[in-house]
Amino acid sequence: MRNGEGMMLWAVVAFLMFGLLPFLYESLPGDESMARAQPKAELGERIYRESCASCHGERGDGQGPEAQKLKTKPRDFTGGIYKFRSTPSGSLPLDQDIFRTVTRGIRGTSMLAQLQLSESERSAVAQYVKTFSKRFKEEKPPPAIAMPRKPPATSSLVSLGRSKYQEAGCAQCHGPDGGRGDGPSAKDLKDDWGNPITPTDLTQKPFKSGTEPEDLYRTISTGVNGTPMPSYASALSANERWALVLYIVSIATHERPRGMMGLVGEEVEGMRIDMRAAMAGMMGGRGMMRRGGSMMDKNMKDMMGR
After folding, report:
1. pLDDT, tens digit, for every residue of 76-95?
2. For the chain, which domains are there?
3. For residues 102 and 114, what is the distance between their CA atoms, to the nearest angstrom?
């Protein structure tokens, strides 16, 4: 099938599956009433295997069949290391942190917002992923960091943020000239699993952690566990962290290139993965998808021009 035809069919399938899916879910076993009736542990495991295991792996180790093709590697849940949290650096996330990531996704990556799942289903799967790490049995997450009210973006505060950007060493990774992710340390960075990691280009929106200034403040304050991005909660005062946020917002003047349906970066691949998973569920379960070379998976790849 020619690529143009594949993209057109992809658009049609995407509309049918993600535009009509909320209505379909009213009659499918994944709706809110069925979710409430099913034990939470059992529900969480079912949702995980249906919607998460293809990337994160059946054992939660980030080694699912889709993982190799992704630049941003799926989270390995076995170590209890979570990047986006409201808790201090190095600590476990709160339940609402995991729920927030499941609900909102991580922009620019294959981890899309899972709004096709009901609130009960998202809550259940957030609980289930915790079972992959013994840390949740041995430790309790501390309270969330304080979130002071965002101050007005005055010129003096933005100027303070520009100074703190240099003084705190942000330019080493994110770049000295406008924060384009091209700092002198950028090419050598790796995450805790040994994967190369690219500093965020701070001139382009949206950021992975979210679209609001509060999301940036939280990331700067907590750090990003498993990556070279440290917490600045001790190095900078709350006012200085807000100044840094406001400076970053002032230079984030470009939108990341958007593809079909407004998707950014690897969100396109994430849509393909989620579409295959959704179709597999409608046609009899993900087991059909996991068998290499199955007719359904081949047809889906053909439709997407791959």
Report:
1. 999 999 999 999 999 999 99
2. 3-143+262-303 (1.10.760.10), 155-255 (1.10.760.10)
3. 6
